[in-house]
Design brief:
It is a single chain. The chain is an alpha/beta fold. Helix content is 51%, strand content 13%. An 8-stranded mixed beta sheet has the order 3-2-4-1-5-6-7-8, with helices on both faces. A hairpin with a 7-residue loop joins strand 7 and strand 8. Helix 4 crosses helix 5. GO terms for molecular function: GTP binding; GTPase activity; signal recognition particle binding. Involved in targeting and insertion of nascent membrane proteins into the cytoplasmic membrane. Acts as a receptor for the complex formed by the signal recognition particle (SRP) and the ribosome-nascent chain (RNC). Its EC number is 3.6.5.4. Belongs to the GTP-binding SRP family. FtsY subfamily.
Length: 317
């Protein structure tokens, strides 16, 4: 087992509750898609396509899912509409399996990467700081020593928010004043973590997209400085997306993928929205694994993404 355990019964209940709005919306649409039909035919598949697109799965991913189901229908000759939900779940799980971190929940830190450096990117307001705080809590609870770096020096509020989380979780925070060079903060943070023999470093970065060239240059500079202190760092670039923004999350993923090499996704604010389908679409379209999902305000409401549990909560009976 990794340091984050797989979704247990309690976590599954939290997941079900967090995805309730999306599930309710999807199941209502699914019911309408097959009304009066016994066999999965072209009409049912057209209706299903509409269900997925309007659930923020995205056009490209929807087409891939429909093609997979069409192959199943052609192979099995006759599929009842009652079987459609099961087949849909199987095909989405298979699609998500193409982009994922090995075994679900197995996130032991690599022994040859100490400290393990995570650079967190994302626009302001997506829950970036909260995600960093919750991650720090998860790692600390697992007995790991954590150092945070406040390299989003563009906003005083970002440094203050991260400091609140650092105090709450009781982990050290390396910061400078607002307007300081982010690469300088990254340098200080990694130097400090290295000297302390820390296990994990989590670096916050600025999330302004209005000047993409500056963002790209800044992230590149921060990465270069990290690599000088700890060769190979950052070991993970985690993009935080707000799931409640639906299609806007696709655009953010597109821009940040251009700006830097994103290796993992954290999708937040899935509770209270009917746009949970975005998790499936973003992972598939950008070929980046979803590593965490946020389904509540609590410090434990950041879950390791379990594709089977997620799809079951979304499309289960």
């Amino acid at each position: 087992m990794g340091i984050f355990s797989s979704v247990n019964k309690d976590k599954k209940e939290v997941l079900d509750k967090g995805l309730a709005k999306t599930k309710e919306s999807v199941l209502k649409k699914m019911t309408r898609a097959v009304v009066g039909k016994k066999k999965v035919d072209d009409d049912v598949l057209d209706n299903l396509e509409e269900v997925l697109i309007t659930s923020d799965v995205g056009v490209d991913t929807t087409i891939r899912i429909i093609e997979r189901i069409e192959d199943r229908v052609a192979r099995d000759r006759y599929i009842n509409t009652s079987e459609l939900n099961t087949i849909l779940r199987e095909e989405i799980v298979a699609l998500l399996a193409e982009n994922e971190y090995g075994e679900t929940g197995n996130f032991e830190l690599p022994s040859d990467k100490k400290p393990y450096v995570i650079m967190v990117v994302g626009v302001n307001g997506v829950g970036k700081t909260t995600t960093i705080g919750k991650l720090a809590h998860k790692y600390k609870s697992a007995g790991k020593s954590v150092v945070l770096g406040a390299a989003d020096t563009f906003r005083a509020a970002a440094i203050e928010q991260l400091e609140i989380w650092a105090n709450r979780v009781e982990v050290p925070l390396i910061k400078q004043k607002m307007g300081a060079d982010p690469a300088s903060v990254a340098f200080d943070t990694l130097s400090s973590a290295k000297s302390k023999g820390a296990d994990v470093v989590i670096i916050d970065t600025a999330g302004r997209l209005h000047n993409k060239v500056n963002l790209m240059n800044e992230l590149t500079k921060v990465k270069k400085v990290m690599d000088k202190i700890i060769p190979g760092a950052p070991h993970e670039i985690l993009l935080v997306l707000d799931g409640s923004t639906g299609q806007n999350a696709f655009e953010q993923a597109k821009q940040f993928s251009k700006a830097t090499e994103v290796t993992a996704l954290a999708i937040t604010k899935l509770d209270g929205t009917a746009k949970g389908g975005v998790v499936i679409g973003v992972s598939d379209q950008f070929k980046i694994p979803v590593k965490y999902i946020g389904i509540g305000e609590g410090v434990d409401d950041l879950q390791v993404f379990d594709r089977k549990a997620f799809v079951d909560s979304l499309f289960g009976d």
